[in-house]
Amino acid sequence: MTPPITLALSKGRIFDETLPLLAAAGIAVLEDPEKTRKLILPTNQEGVRVVLVRATDVPTYVEYGGADLGVTGKDTLIEHGGQGLFRPLDLRIAKCHVSVAVRSDFDYRHAVHQGARLRVATKYTSIARDFFAGKGVHVDLIKLYGSMELAPLTGLADAIVDLVSTGNTLKANHLVEVERIMDISSHLVVNQAAFKLKQARLREIIGAFESAIRKD
Ligand code: AMP
Questions:
Q1: How many domains does the chain have?
Q2: For residue range 89-146, what is the model confidence (pLDDT) as tens digits?
Q3: Which of 25, 54, 151, 189 satisfies CB 3.0 to 4.6 Å to 156 for a cystine?
Q4: 165 lines ligand 1 (CB under 6 A)
Q5: Cβ atoms within 10 A of the Cβ of 52, count?
Q6: Looking at ligand 1, which residue's alpha carbon is closest to its atom 14?
Q7: CATH at residue 188
Q8: Is the CB of residue 13 below 6 angstroms from any atom belonging to ligand 1?
């Protein structure tokens, strides 16, 4: 019997937007993650299962072989470092961008021009550090794990570095985007050892995903 294939996904946009790609590979997930408390979901194929993990844990699960493959945002991949992962495909799903945002009454250009030291709150410390270092702007980074939008409103930080999709969250909190750092989409990542050991099956899945993306 061949060992099962385990795919790590996070609930929400990544799960939802991966379903059509799985369908192209003939795989249907048999339970809805919003309706079950199960963390391991069966599929219509006995040899394939889905594990639900936090978005930031997907690269870790795949790196250490807790899952053979996973779907994760480029933002998460950069922060993780990508070690031990084979990255065969940009799936072009869950698109958004990483941006710098400030309170609408904060003069960001002036602060940067004056060489002021900016306090920047973010979950994406690697991305933020590289970006501001590249601009020669001095920053104090404050690591947060959520609700970054609150930081400039409470005086915790001058700016945030966060994911922006529609811009509605920024607008609702009187924040404005002042720099776009990079475009983000989700990537397929594969455990390097699994890719060798389960090559035939994984290649089939990767190939089906690839054809489905090309059709779009
Ligand atoms: P929006 O209001 O559409 O600009 O979405 C912004 C909020 O959703 C922020 O809190 C982001 O952290 C989060 N967000 C946007 N796009 C994504 C994504 N692709 N993956 C995870 N979180 C996202």
A1: 2
A2: 999 999 999 999 999 999 999 999 988 899 999 999 999 999 999 999 999 999 999 9
A3: 151
A4: yes
A5: 17
A6: 163
A7: 3.40.190.10
A8: yes
